[in-house]
Amino acid sequence: MALGRPESMFQSAVNSVLNDQNHIESLKDQQLTALEAFILKKDVFALLPTGFGKSLIYQLAPLVAKKMSLYENPVVVVVSPLLALMEQQVTEASKVGVTAMQIGVNSDVEIFSGKAELLFGSPEAWLLNDKWRRLLSNIKDLVGIVVDEVHLTYKWGLAEKGQSAFRECFARLGELRSIVKAGTPIMALTASADVQSRARVVKQLHLEKAVTVIESPNRTNIRLGLAHISGPHLDCMDWIVQEVKEKGIAMSPVIIYCQTLKDVGRVFCYLEAELDEDCWVGRDPMHQAENMIIGMFHSKTLPHNKSRVLSSLSGEGNCKVVVATTALGMGLNFPNISHVVMYGVPKDMEAIVQEIGRAGRNGKPSHAVIYFVKQHTRMDQAVKELLTTKRHSCIRKALYSHFDKKATAITPGHQCCTYCHSVCQCNTEGCPVSTPVYELPPRPLPEHLVSRQVTEGDKVLLRDLLLQYQITLLKEKQHLYTNRTACTGFGSELIDAVIEHSEYIFDIQYIGKHLPVFNQTHAYAILHIINELFEDIANCPSPSATTADSVIFPDIYYTGYYDEPNMDQEHTSASSSESGVAAIEGSD
User: Fold this and answer.
1) CA–CA separation, 199 vs 210, rounded Å?
2) pLDDT at 169
3) How far apart are CA 558 and CA 544, in angstroms?
4) What fold, for 7-214?
5) pLDDT of the residue at 446
6) DSSP string computed for 218-278
């Protein structure tokens, strides 16, 4: 595509740059279009799927611009949201022979030396720090500005009704126009922005006659699953437990995304309890962190543990199952993820597409499954409609039509989604492919498990007793929070779970394994209340009881490792305030 300069000159420069690369044979048409437009001072909006190679566009920009003799010392400024993403991109840039630096990591002397061809910084650094604003305005050979993960301009930059914006500077990135020289192009990159959101990006960044490059995010190598989970129990994760036990570190990596820190803690502790010694490579008796097969990743995870998880997912470590919030994955390149599990539904379609996109970047058949937990209700109307799709039509088409009006189901149906698999007729005798294990109904409770008869009247009385206990907790607390769950740790989700499991609650071990309780005192109180109502628990301990063999209840802030330094010490990242990101690493 020619944009004001002979195509042969641009193509000749690209070919020359690629000849110097050992691992890049050619660029896709979309990459070429975006790269040429950007170098020739056109604004660019590129909506390209995860794993497509968006970062390669701006990594090659200074090299191609120099080959075309447009600049003597070309520099591309990259606005990036997360420290981990910047660090990985700096490393990746070095592989293509580009000198990349990061504000808050490289010294001022290095950055002001003029040797950087790619310069990474957060929105806060570029907008709030006078030093970096001056640098931005004085870069002589500035090729342009790249805004990576541009959907965050409205996701994080704009406030929801009644709330403050998570990171307001994202919404202010249009101010960069007033800092740099007139005519400096901006390239906006994302894997997920629906039709309506694209117009918001154009307005916020003041893009002018932008060259738009769009490729559908519909990755056909990923089968989409959707299953409804009726209660807070975690039997839906048992297939992962079995996979770890059978294959250990030979298994393909799995990411489990949760919507809250509490659910991260619940899921991690469930896997840990079910796996027991199989959590560690070779059942390591020392329980060393580097030998742990499961792990956590969220905003409160210690930096060195984050590094351990990131290295493992990149192929250099033993962690194969990661329970995470959205702090993990944005823009990061993990090529071999075989399954992405969403425990709880992301609140909008763009978030769903982002999380699905972590799977199958190597092009191999992969899976993404949403577990719709009925207690999770924070989602927009489009997502609510998607959740009913499983019953009557293609999930893939319903999801991706928000991004691509031509989205369709794929054949054979068993490779498409839950619904299409259910009606697949790829063989004259029907579909021979079994339902994936992650969609199978939960295992039945063992026949020998003791149970009791619980009537609807019993459930009403039980709820009253649990609410009375909750009220006593409120009386004991200073009201520092605005809701009962935050104030007491004993909320409606836990009460619902107790009622649902009331047939089987006879000991403290069952409560610790099956209920979302994070406080030992609460667990003993629940057991006492159950016995008060049904009077069928032999030697029921008192609510304040503690024993040597008491169940250890999960701490939602537990990082998932056992060899930590003193947790009272303050941990800081290398970039600190210079990066403008400080303690915020993701929207948990």
Assistant:
1) 11
2) 95
3) 24
4) Rossmann fold (3.40.50)
5) 55
6) --TTEEEEEEEE-SS--GGGHHHHHHHHHHGGGSPPEEEEESSHHHHHHHHHHHHHHHGGG
State the sign of the Cα–Cα–Cα–Cα dihedral 479, 481, 484, 485: negative
Domain boundaries, given as residue ranges, for the chain: 7-214, 222-439, 450-557
Distance CA 59, CA 96 (A): 8
Q: Which candidate, 417, 243, 431, 411, places its Cα nearest to that of 338?
A: 243
Cα distances (angstroms) measured from residue 495 to each of 267, 360, 530, 534: 19, 39, 12, 17
The 3-state secondary structure of 353-383, one letter per residue? HHHHCCCCCCCCCEEEEEEEECCCCCCCHHH
pLDDT value, residue 565: 38
The answer to whether the 7-214 and 222-439 domains have the same CATH topology is yes
pLDDT of 461 reads: 92
Q: What is the pLDDT of residue 519?
A: 81
Write the pLDDT tens digit of every residue in 348-364.
999 999 999 999 999 99
N residues, the chain: 588
Residue type (1 letter), 25? E
The CATH number of 222-439 is: 3.40.50.300
Q: What residues are paired with 254 via a beta bridge?
A: 321, 339
Count the alpha carbons within 13 Å of 214 in the hemisphere toward its beta carbon.
Answer: 13
Q: Are 255 and 314 in contact (CB under 8 A)?
A: no
Residues of the chain falling short of pLDDT 50: 1-2, 4-6, 448, 548-549, 556-588
Place of tokens 């929105």: 123
User: Which tokens go with 319?
Assistant: 């962690």
Measured between alpha carbons, how far is 1 from 211 in angstroms, rounded to an integer?
11
